[in-house]
Amino acid sequence: MSWPTGTRALLLHNAKARQGEAALQPVRDRLESGGLAVTVEPFESLPEIARDVTRLHREANLVVVCGGDGSISSAAPAIIESGLPLGIIPAGTANDLARTLSIPLDFGAAADVIVDGHKRPIDVGTVNGHAFFNVASIGLSSELAQKLDPAIKKRFGRLGYAVAALRILAGADRFRAKIIEKGRSIEVGTYQIAIGNGRLYGGGNIVEENAAIDDGTLDLYSLEMRNLWKLALMLRAFRSGTHGAWKEVRTARCVEFDIDTRRPMPINTDGEIVTATPAHFKVLPRAISVIAPCDCLLTPRQFPMYHH
């Protein structure tokens, strides 16, 4: 498929993204050479991107976000409301959504995918009304998002994440939480609770080995070991999504979860702190149409709705 002549693309560009400025000109050139009429709208804050979509969507036929996972998630509610398809130029640090969808990390190649125009409906997760594509988490990942200096993140990328993570692990404590699923409640002591909508997060970790971004469910895991350094033994399992096989890791699959903690705790969605507990998570099945390679396989599955 290709776009009709005169198709208008609203290109939202985050110059603060790790590779945002470098991406702009080659992306614009490729889109325009592919017949798209491009309007560039820069943004400097995440709330601004949703306002830009709301303000400008009537003048466009598709929205293209050039930025990281946090920027794309921030734009999602307004894009869903507009009904327009979403194109992705991955210009962040981890780019997990692009990896999930097999979108090339090369800017020109990603723009070529948008020119080709193949659409895929995918799910969107929400927590307290905030959208996420990859994962939302409470605990270790939220501490990392809070303590990672933006300048270090932009300069060192994944290495910056690794150094900050080691510092956080050294001083981490378990917290008490209540997980409510299908009306059933359980109290846990945990270092982290993560709820995934997509497949990849954290620069290539897998939420759950069979997870897909179009399966209509959320995947939860809770790290309930006594000794946090046991995580070092689990690293390979997290890369393959088989961490649920460890007895210290609680897993569940459902369409909605509620999480409460003794004190409000921040929630990290796709790399950004957006809300706090108590939290209500739910999935919006096939809520948004993304432009992805025509051979992108999202592997829809049929599973029991939850397991432990």
Set out the fold topology.
Layout: E1 8-14, H1 20-33, E2 37-43, H2 46-56, E3 62-67, H3 69-82, E4 86-90, H4 96-100, H5 107-116, E5 119-127, E6 130-132, E7 135-139, H6 140-147, H7 150-156, H8 158-170, E8 175-181, E9 184-190, E10 192-196, E11 200-201, E12 205-206, E13 218-223, H9 231-240, E14 249-254, E15 256-261, E16 266-269, E17 272-276, E18 279-291
Parallel strand pairs: 1-2, 1-3, 3-4
Antiparallel strand pairs: 5-6, 5-18, 7-10, 7-16, 8-9, 8-15, 10-13, 11-12, 13-14, 15-18, 16-17
Helix pairs in contact: 1-5, 2-3, 6-8, 7-8
Structure described in brief:
By secondary structure, this protein is α+β, with helices and mostly antiparallel strands.
The SS-based structural class is: alpha+beta
Uncertain regions: pLDDT < 50 for 5+ in a row?
300-308
Shape: elongated
CATH topology of the largest domain: Tumour Suppressor Smad4
Strand content: 25-35%
Biggest sheet descriptor: 6 strands, antiparallel
Number of strands: 18
CATH architecture field of the largest domain: Sandwich
Domain unit count: 2
Backbone CA Rg: 19 Å
Order of helices and strands: EHEHEHEHHEEEHHHEEEEEEHEEEEE
Name the helicity range: 25-40%
Question: Strand order, biggest sheet?
Answer: 6-5-18-15-8-9
Cα end-to-end separation: 43 Å
CATH level 1 class label of the largest domain: Mainly Beta
Mean pLDDT across every amino acid position: 86
User: Looking at the chains present, what oligomeric state does this protein adopt?
Assistant: single chain
Give the number of helices. Answer: 9
